[in-house]
Design goal:
A seven-stranded mixed sheet has the order 4-5-1-6-7-2-8, sandwiched between helices. Strands 10-11-12-13 form a four-stranded antiparallel sheet, covered by helices on one side. Strands 3-9 form a two-stranded parallel ribbon. The longest helix is centred in the middle third of the chain and has 30 residues. The protein is α/β, with parallel strands linked by helices and about 475 residues long. The protein contains 14 helices and 13 strands.
Length: about 475
């Protein structure tokens, strides 16, 4: 290999070069900005970079080329406000009292990411969905500022040089959809990869195209934010995060602990500080974002934030499994529209789910209320086809009562449709995962691990009473 040519330079000249390049000792390092862009009901792997052949996500794909794509990212709960509460608090939702439920209130004394950053001189702003639909009956200040301030306006009122945190809460791809808009926009239903938990039917394919169209709209909105960051020269000094609060609004997806409910796209980019074009398989929970952001900003992480910073993974140059200890993740549910308490542990090979309401119906398609599955053409088709040979089993899996324990072998059953919890060959695996799950829940101080699940019902009753009182005013 040819050796580089050595340059000869005098000592005085060298000192002059160093002096010209040196940063003044009294000038602190520039703190990064944070932009968190979070979709509403977007599942992994529905992005071009993740291998989906239909949906077009150029913004997400470009961020993956510049940053780190996490292929094993999971929400704490597959329900919007509990998942967002966990992100803001840097803790699993079950540690957050009433905020563990949909519509629940954040406890007064919980330290939140936005409050901490504001105390450190960060300008805080948001547009779209924040921690809604919570009521905040305990707090005078919301976890995120009220109102909707577009990014361009937010930047105009920002004092020069002040670091900022901006939350873009997209409202896509949440239902309802403009029926047929996906096909009208040119999406081909014949190319859609129908999830195995859903029947392969033209109505379902069309419904999935409508979902894809809204994913694409969210992606375009995120693209405009990045363009504005680049226009004002702040892109390279901004930690950019693009993800979702829970999975797609289809049966056996959102509000369940299967992957299509809890596994979400996640990419993090930060200019040259994060080596890009990397796929990482470390298991991360979105509650890990809060300590990651604080560490990136040089702010001490409160002890109450029991999530783990991802910064060591981000700033490494490795791909695949970077941190060997990140080999599993915990997820859970309390109340979505209806109470359906569950906890789960997900590893590379297995998903174990503990259902606390054994034999209860998690959803019921015949009710005038929609329970835990959003109304949709897919839901209507499945309910109307429950007696057919093709859709009957999928209907049962999505709508009917579940046993105390579910265990899925992802090597043989990646769609998580065959429960092997009671199969003899899996008994030892099931017991091992049960012990691991319970141990982790005890360490995290989950009330259900200590037999105090009724606490969540009392929080829910109080929040509902508060909501009714507010409506009467």
């Amino acid at each position: 290999m040819k050796r580089p040519t050595c340059l000869r330079i005098s000592c005085c000249a060298l000192l002059g070069v160093l002096a010209a390049c040196a940063v003044p000792l009294d000038e602190p390092p520039r703190r990064p900005n944070i932009v968190l862009m979070i979709a509403d009901d977007w599942s992994y792997p529905h992005a071009g970079f993740l291998g989906d052949p239909v949906v077009a996500t150029p913004t997400f794909d470009a961020l993956c080329a510049k940053g780190v794509c996490f292929s094993q990212a999971f929400v704490s709960a597959p329900s919007c406000s509990p998942a967002r509460a966990a992100i803001l608090a840097g803790q699993h939702h079950w540690r957050l009292a009433g905020a563990a439920n949909l519509w629940g209130s954040m406890p007064r004394d919980t330290l939140l990411l936005t409050d901490i950053l504001a105390d450190q001189g960060y300008l805080i702003g948001k547009f779209g969905k924040g921690h809604w639909p919570s009521h905040h009956r305990h707090r005078k200040t919301l976890p995120l500022p009220a109102g909707h301030e577009r990014f361009e306006k937010f930047l105009r009122r920002r004092p020069a040089g002040q670091p900022f945190f901006y939350w873009f809460g997209g409202q896509d791809p949440h239902r309802p959809y403009d029926t047929g808009i996906g096909q009208r926009s040119g999406l081909d239903p014949a190319r859609v990869m129908v999830p195995t938990c859903l029947p392969d039917h033209p109505k379902v394919r069309s419904d999935l195209c409508d979902y894809y169209w809204e994913v694409q709209r969210f992606d375009r909105q995120c693209g405009r934010i990045l363009q504005e960051l680049e226009r004002v020269g702040e892109l390279d000094n901004t930690v950019v995060i693009m993800t979702s609060d829970n999975g797609m609004p289809f049966p056996r997806c959102k509000a369940t602990l299967y992957d299509l409910g809890t596994r979400v796209p996640l990419v993090v980019a930060w200019g040259a500080r994060v080596p890009g074009a990397r796929r990482v398989t470390d298991f991360v929970g979105l509650q890990d974002l809060a300590p990651t952001i604080l560490e990136a900003c040089g702010v001490a992480v409160p002890a109450a934030m029991n999530a783990r910073s991802m910064l060591p993974v981000l700033v490494s140059t490795a791909t695949g499994r970077v941190d060997a200890s990140r080999d599993h993740v915990l997820t859970g549910m309390e109340g979505h529209v209806e109470d359906n308490p569950q906890r789960a542990i997900r590893t590379d090979r297995y998903l174990l789910i503990r259902n606390y309401y054994e034999g209860a119906w998690p959803v019921h398609p015949d009710s005038e209320y929609n329970f835990n599955i959003d109304p949709s053409p897919t839901k209507t088709y499945m309910a109307g086809s429950r007696d057919t040979a093709g859709a009957g089993r999928l209907y049962q899996l999505a709508f009917e009562a579940r046993p105390k324990l579910e265990l899925y072998d992802l090597d043989r059953d990646p769609a998580q449709l065959v429960n092997v919890a009671q199969v003899e060959a899996y008994v030892e695996t099931r017991k091992r995962l049960e012990g691991q799950l319970l141990g982790a829940l005890l360490v995290s101080r989950d009330p259900r691990a200590f037999g105090r699940g009724s606490e969540f019902l009392s929080y829910r009753a109080a929040d509902r009473a508060h909501k009714r009182a507010q409506q009467r005013k």
